[in-house]
Amino acid sequence: MPLPSQDIMVLLADESFQRWLANTASEAEAQHWRAWLEEAPARPEILAEAKALWRAAQFQAEPLPEVETEWLRLQSRLNLAGKKPAVIRRLDASRAEVGRDRNARFSWKYLGVFAAAAGIGLAVLWPKEFASEQNQTATLQTVTTAYGERAHLKLPDGTTVVLNAQSTLRYPDSWREAAARRVELRGEAYFEAASHMLPHAETPQPFVVQTGDGEVTVVGTKFVVYERNAGTRVVVEEGRVQVKAAAISAAPVLLSAGQLARFRRSEERITPENAGLGFYTTWWQEEWRLEATPFAEVIQRLEETYGVRVEVLDEPLRRRKLSGAVENRDLDGIIVALAKALRINVRREGEVVKFGEDVQ
After folding, report:
1. Angle 111-258-300 (CA atoms, 0-180°, nearest 5)?
2. In contact, 75 and 38? CB cutoff 8 Å
3. Which of 211, 238, 239 is nearest to 225 (CA)?
4. For residue 169, is pLDDT > 90?
5. Angle at CA 166, nearest 5°, toward 164 and 171?
6. Of the candidates 83, 114, 219, 118, which has an alpha carbon nearest to the alpha carbon of residue 159?
7. Mind listing the pLDDT tens digit for each residue in 201-218?
8. Domains along the chain?
9. I need a surface site. Which of 57, 218, 255, 350 has the fewest CB within 10 A?
10. Is the pTM of this model over 0.70?
11. Chain-centre distance of CA 209, in angstroms?
């Protein structure tokens, strides 16, 4: 049953709540909202919905009149009738304390996936550089996930997308035959691009993923794109991918299966890497594989996926490397499994997870 919009509006009108969403709240405010979150079972769902609307409408701690304006604008953009919605699955991020052993398994064979399912499709205005290349009659769609959510999408050409938590994908609901198939990504997504032939063409139609740093162009392949305002990372699981930074003088680079590349928009040269890619390509599967993965990178993924803050009391732990597989069912199970593998203690206190020998 959908949450009453008026309840969410009350939250979004609260400047203290806005600061909490933007991670600029005082410690006292943060404690207040953490306590609010734990007062009722429905609060996490309300928070997730509020976060999604807050990001979609770009609420930036504005005073109440501006919030009301943005809310009306957002409502006018909703266009769910007759559209097949994205399937958004909420990851289980229960707030039970996990300082005890919960029979978590870590036998180099684990992961799980998603819990409850719900759908949402948002029709929004794209930037001009995207809209000008698309069919003017197409409806422009945006799908945004909150912390602890993933969205499974099927694009008009048959391409499959798994959108990770705290991410946004923009795409038209149909493509002109003459135009490249083009999407815009902020965050992280796994793509299985369908091969699409135009009538009388000799080669398949390109599929393009654009980030703030440049473009990723493919024909038909499996790959992951990651972009969170600190450069773009592309990992190729199958096939080949062409990567080009946004700089005019930048030369395109071709990546093959098993290769990774990192780049920023101003870079002219991109250097492919050969490395274990399981950590980058299995975050959406039932088994999240680690291949000599530094614990610091695991921490970053936990924070980006679940919106928690991870504290490590023994700093050298960040450099420890892990290999194997972890059951990906929920946050609590993951952190307990990691603690067992590292042979350390772990405790979760609301939105803070603490790893270290001194945890009581």
Report:
1. 45
2. no
3. 211
4. yes
5. 70
6. 219
7. 667 788 999 999 999 999
8. 5-77 (no CATH), 93-112+286-355 (3.55.50.30), 117-274 (2.60.120.1440)
9. 350
10. no
11. 15
Please give the backbone phi and psi of residue 147, each rounded to the nearest 5 degrees, phi first: -55, 140
Give the whole-angstrom CA distance, residue 318 versus residue 144.
30
- Distance between CA 295 and CA 287 in Å, rounded? 17
Up-side HSE of residue 323: CA atoms within 13 Å toward CB? 3
Mean pLDDT across the chain = 76
For 18-28, what is each residue's pLDDT tens digit? 888 877 778 88
DSSP designation for 57: T
Listed in sequence order, the DSSP H helices in the chain are 5-12, 15-21, 27-38, 43-56, 64-77, 128-131, 278-281, 295-306, 331-342
| Residue of 160, 127, 167 whose CA lies nearest to 146 | 167
Can you give the pLDDT at residue 121?
Answer: 35
